[in-house]
Design goal:
Layout lengths: L8 H13 L3 H8 L3 H11 L8 H13 L10 H12 L4 H11 L7 H9 L8 H4 L50
Helix pairs in contact: 1-4, 2-3, 5-6, 6-7
């Protein structure tokens, strides 16, 4: 069986048609090349209370769940938000703010990634990467994608160059001084 991926509308239509015909879940799973438990979970999660299955309703529920599956904001707590804002006023980095918060509030959790995410999503008023982050929101290991691409490689040179019988066929680093042609 393949790794888990979301059911498509066509697969959901097939599930509905097969259930209406009275086919078993294992038979449906075999036809869709899915695990039986995946089909069973889909029917249980998106089926009606009476046990029937409607593919359109299943798609609507799937879409609604995906839309509402965003990460919850951690800095809603007023105490935590004030601490982070005061840390930025003191020119602390998110890592320092996190360590100070854990030291002053043992047992409570806060990650520097939460603070970075809050800055990026503009959850904190008047805090921007350009004004309050040391790297100004730039990635730490930005890769240079503008590498030099030669037009001709060493493999493109003619075969007579290998014999080195003509003038000018020597490699450049072995030639010193001015060459006189005459």
């Amino acid at each position: 069986m393949s790794s888990y991926k979301h059911f498509t509308p066509i697969e959901r239509q097939y599930i509905q048609e097969s259930l209406n015909k009275g086919k078993k879940k294992s038979e449906i799973a075999r036809k869709l090349n899915r695990n039986r438990s995946s089909v069973s979970r889909e029917i249980k999660r998106n089926g009606n209370k009476d046990g029937s299955y409607n593919w359109w309703r299943a798609m609507c529920l799937y879409t609604w769940r995906r839309k509402n599956s965003v990460r919850k904001l951690r800095l809603k707590c007023v105490k935590l938000r004030k601490f982070v804002m005061s840390g930025f006023e003191k020119r602390w980095s998110p890592e320092i703010i996190t360590q100070r918060y854990k030291k002053e509030n043992p047992g409570e959790k806060l990650s520097h990634n939460t603070i970075y995410r809050a800055v990026q999503t503009k959850e904190l008023p008047d805090i921007t990467p350009q004004t309050h982050l040391r790297r100004r929101g730039k990635r730490k290991n930005a890769r240079n994608t503008q590498a030099i691409k030669p037009t001709h490689t060493i493999h493109d040179r003619p075969a007579e160059v290998e014999t080195r019988e003509r003038i000018g066929d020597l490699e450049g680093d072995t030639v010193s001084g001015l060459a006189t042609v005459g």
